[in-house]
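Hi V.,

You were right to ask for the full record rather than a summary. Here it is.
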Amino acid sequence: MFCGECGAKNEKGSLFCEECGAKLREVPKKEEKKESKKKATSKKKSTIKMTKKKKILIVVVAVAVIGLFIGYKTLEKKTSPETLVKNYLTAINNQDYNTLYELIKSDADSPFISKEAYIEALKKMITEKNMLGTISIGTTTYENAGLNASVSFNSSEIETNKISSILTGEDSLSIKLTKSKGKQYLFFDNWTIDDDTLLSFDTVKNYYIVVPQNTKVTYGTVSVADKYVDESKNSDDDNNTYYKLPEVLKTETEVKFELPDGLKVTKEITPSSYSTTYKLSLSKSDFTEKQQDTLLEQAKKDYETLMTGLLAKKEFQEIKGNFATKVGLDELEEEYNDMLEDLSESSYTISNYKISNARINSISNGNEYLYAVRVYISYTYDRQYKDSSSSSSRNRSGTYSLYYTYEDGYKLANVSGLQTF
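Predicted structure:
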């Protein structure tokens, strides 16, 4: 039987409770069981009462889980193709070149495709702010087993064709992305922009720049070192240097040249798959007036040296010291000797030769020499026949090409044609 006060079990027939001493009374079995169950439940409830520390711990865990979930979703959105494309288009509108450089795909391993090269190219392509106007991002499609993505977008400025590669009349355009190796923030795909719609950055491999020997070249912001010289090409050409650049952008690039005589020239070069070689070509406009005057005075001096030597019937060896020493003068010597022979066999003698006027018509860099200078020369002289005592003064003119090297000054290496009488 059970005590009605404390619920303790006592032997049947006991008058008082062995636990609390209360007077016992017999109760029906049903009521006894109910009472016993009630006491047990009450006791169980009291044993599972939660502590304050447990409550705090549960709250902290719950907050952490919620925080992790929110953080996961935030990073998932931040690294999504849609967000990257939106950031990319916004950077175009804002002329944010540094952000564009970080977003544009570049696997090239070449010093000539540097951050500076990209940014210079971007500045030429993005000439004003808000070029795309209002942007709205569309849908994303995945290809190649999820390795490539394409995000469509609309722009309020598509019709104005402000970026040359945008095709007018399109309802919408899309930007392609490529999934790179590795993960961002441990869990998220690493997407990079692979844009061939707005800003195309294709490259050309093994691009050649051919310049006269001892010419310094700066491609973009990178000085082209001697290690890029292709010796196999140089061995076939003694007058030019062949620089082989491993990889360059297919965009207009500023290239600076400094020739052996100190002439500095800047050219805009646009490499392409159809033209993988650029050969420096100079014109008169690349030279300052002072440089042109220096060449003209040298041309007049050299021509007078040749002509006065001929008229004095000097051998070529006697005047050879006035000309180039680092290249062969065989062609110049042959031209001189032919003219010397013609004069010795003529029926007249020439005296009082003088250049009355001269001007440069053109300047170019020759295949065999540093410069080819095309000069117009007018001259006067006296001619007297050998069988007559009378003489006559004459005026003549012509255009002649003089070819120069540079050896601490311009040195004549060859001529195309000598003056006749």
